[in-house]
Amino acid sequence: MTLPVSRDEAKAQLRVDGNDQDTEIDDLIRDAAAWVEDYTGQILEARDVVEHFTGFRPISLRAWPIDPAAVATVEYVAGAGPALAVGSRLDATRRPARVSPALGSFWPFIDSRQSFTVSVRAGYEDPDDVPRGMCRAMLVMIAAFDADREGGETFAKAEAAAKRLCRRYKRYSL
């Protein structure tokens, strides 16, 4: 998979010609993608995600977007044995995606401290599906990382602009 901002787009944003800085620009792209993912909670490049939980509370996944047809795998360890998979149902029609026991079943946890994992494929499968505002925020952050390496006033202004671009894609929770 590829990130939604290409090296050529980043070079155009930075007004860089030639290939001398390609490695550094690739790092800036990854750093900007990580910033957008951290701020919005959305995964820009599709990958398998494993989230860890404890107890009997409802399970809301942090990962987003998730294809509604995706299959979530729930596993737990009973005693000292191997990990056991249990049936689950995924509702990824809205954010946050929720995982619950398969219809007509329950999870055999006997302790409210029981830990378990949920594995699911999340993120944008096609870079063209990433909202343009998040791509634009990446470009703003790439320029800020390059121009203000110490993280001063220029970086702070760029970060504020990137937050405005990403605001509607961020998940707010209590």
Provide an overview of this structure.
- 33% of the residues lie in helices and 20% in strands.
- By secondary structure, the chain is an alpha+beta fold.
- The protein folds into two domains: 7-43 and 127-169, no CATH class; 47-122, no CATH class.
- The strands form two sheets. Strands 1-7-3-4 form a four-stranded antiparallel sheet, with no helix packed on it.
- The longest helix has 19 residues, at 22-40.
- It starts with 6 loop residues before the first helix and ends in an 8-residue tail after the last helix.
- The relative contact order is 0.21.
Number of domains: 2
Give the mean pLDDT: 90
User: What structural class results from the helix and strand content?
Assistant: alpha+beta
Order of helices and strands: HHEEEEEEEHH
Poorly predicted ranges: none
Radius of gyration: 20 Å
The N- and C-terminal alpha carbons lie at a distance of: 33 Å
**Approximate strand percentage:** 15-25%
**How many separate helices?**
4
Give the strand order of the largest sheet, numbering strands 1, 2, ... along the chain: 1-7-3-4
Shape call: elongated
Task: Tell me about the largest β-sheet.
Answer: 4 strands, antiparallel
How helical, in percent, are the residues?
Answer: 25-40%
